[in-house]
Design brief:
This protein is α/β, with parallel strands linked by helices and 455 residues long. Helix content is 28%, strand content 25%. The structure holds ligand LLP. Ligand LLP binds next to helix 10 and helix 11.
Length: 455
């Protein structure tokens, strides 16, 4: 049975009715079991695997919307009506996600002409797009200015000069934030640690370069300097990272006012709140953390007699990670007596490179069997290298065999967006799940797609 969505014409398939038994002993309350069958967002995942094939990315649309609303409400109550959370779309970028963000009233953070193009193609309002990146090309700058995007987050002096020139050529006055490196260690893994003085991103306060950067920006006739941006890292669990960032940024904003006679009105604190991938990790209470940040902001502003700035933040992972699940089909089970056992599936580091890159942890479930005898396996992919591991040492039913469906949880962030065609593997589709049905948001790549650009 199918019906057409009134908003975007998408076709939905009705879900198989599942007895709701969500959350109990599972990683997240959108994951459940109905008997021994795994459910996600109330859908039988085996049924979805049969219908759409594997590997398959699933996205729980209600969860994405719930996460957006959590941020919007927390922002309104903690920072006031003119604050705005921006979805960091590097976490997952495809047209439907921008439509959802537009409907929810979020802004978006983009980092390339490609992300901007995708957002605009989906009808996302350009004035709510922020354009980041430490290495924007002339073409990026031209495209961003011409598209009328709301704000450039300028990373360095060369970009500042190039943007000023381009805005002048196009006869525009472009709004900008300046990216400042606060010099704060968020205690996360190195690849996502961005706020330290020696970072490739932004201009550091400590070396005195940041104040010169602001002074230079104030002389740019085609730019309107709105405020500052900073981002200290991703997958942050430390309690006071954002408070320490606020201390430093407000002190620096007061320094700008005192030395340059200019009051900056916006402060973007970046993204980074951590997501729980395994039971052993904590669940960050984001509204409570935001309330603490707001408290600290008010204290610091009072200390320097500085007017409360408009606050922006850029959550990516915490909007989409727990809305995602990836399904695979088992191809082989290999037991090497005295050594280890492998479960190999039909995807791998091409659709999820995060263990290979960062040693990231995941929770893995068998989709149809539970409660029986288990064994420990390395869950590996089909790519031609030994590092193609999705997750080592996972507990799965001992009798797991070819054809079984395996689910990897919390794959909504930095999986599809980091996927590749290594070994000429087609990228999986994305199926969105709602209470009233499931629909395709991104099609599966075909073998022809793989050769589409070859001459
Ligand atoms: N703002 C800026 C400037 C960023 O660089 C990032 C992430 C975010 C916001 C969003 O951070 P989030 O809320 O998602 O933590 N590929 C890595 C993550 C890279 C994060 C890069 N920047 C991973 O898979 O863990």
């Amino acid at each position: 049975m199918r019906y057409i969505d009134k908003v975007n014409g998408t076709k939905y398939n009705h879900p198989v009715k599942m007895e709701k038994q969500r959350g109990r002993n599972m990683l997240s309350d959108n994951i459940g079991r109905s008997g021994s069958r795994l459910t996600f967002a109330g859908h039988d995942v085996t049924h979805l695997a049969e219908q759409y094939g594997t590997p398959l990315y699933l996205m729980d649309e209600e969860r994405i919307r719930r996460n957006c609303r959590m941020y919007l409400q927390a922002f309104r109550s903690s920072f006031g009506g003119n604050s705005l959370p921006l979805y960091a779309s590097k976490a997952a970028s495809f047209k439907q996600i921008y439509r959802i963000m537009a409907q929810e009233g979020m802004g978006v953070d983009t980092v390339s002409s490609g992300e901007i193009f995708t957002a605009l193609s989906a009808g996302f309002p350009p004035e709510r797009i922020f354009f980041h990146g430490n290495s924007k090309t002339d073409a990026d700058i031209r495209y961003g200015v011409a598209s009328g995007i709301g704000c450039f987050v300028v990373d360095n002096t060369e970009e500042l000069l190039a943007l000023n020139r381009e805005a002048g050529c196009q006869g525009k006055k472009q709004k900008v934030l300046l990216r400042i490196t606060p010099g704060i260690d968020p205690h996360t893994y190195d690849a996502v640690n961005t706020g330290m003085v020696d970072s490739k991103f932004g201009v550091p306060v400590e070396t005195g370069q940041a104040i010169e950067f602001v002074a230079l920006a104030l002389t740019m006739e085609n730019l309107q300097l709105c405020g500052l941006h900073c981002h200290v890292g991703s997958q942050v669990f430390d309690e006071d990272v954002f408070e320490r960032t606020v201390d430093l940024m407000v002190r620096f904003m007061a320094q700008v006012r005192d030395e340059l006679g200019f009051t900056l009105e916006e402060l973007n604190l970046g993204g980074g709140y951590g997501t729980r991938y395994q039971d052993s990790e904590p669940q960050v209470d984001i509204p409570a953390r935001i309330a603490e940040v707001a408290k600290r902001l008010r204290e610091q502003c009072a200390k320097y007699a500085f007017p409360l700035p408009r606050i922006l933040m850029e959550p990516g992972r915490s909007i989409v990670a727990d809305a995602g699940m990836t399904l695979y089909t088992v191809s082989s089970v290999k037991r090497i007596p005295g050594y280890k056992s492998y479960v190999a599936v039909d995807g791998g580091m091409t659709d999820n490179p995060r263990y290979a890159l960062y040693g990231s942890r995941y929770t893995v479930y068998h989709a149809e069997k539970s409660g029986g005898k288990e064994a420990v396996f390395d869950l590996v992919g089909r790519c031609c290298e030994s590092g193609d591991i999705i997750q080592p040492k996972v507990s799965l039913p001992e009798d797991t065999c070819r054809g079984d469906i395996i689910a990897v949880c919390t794959t909504g962030a930095y999986n599809y967006s980091m996927a590749s065609n290594y070994n000429r593997l087609p990228r999986p589709p994305i199926v969105m799940l709602r209470e009233d049905g499931a629909y395709l948001a991104v099609k599966r790549e075909s073998l022809e797609d793989l050769c589409a650009l070859d001459i």
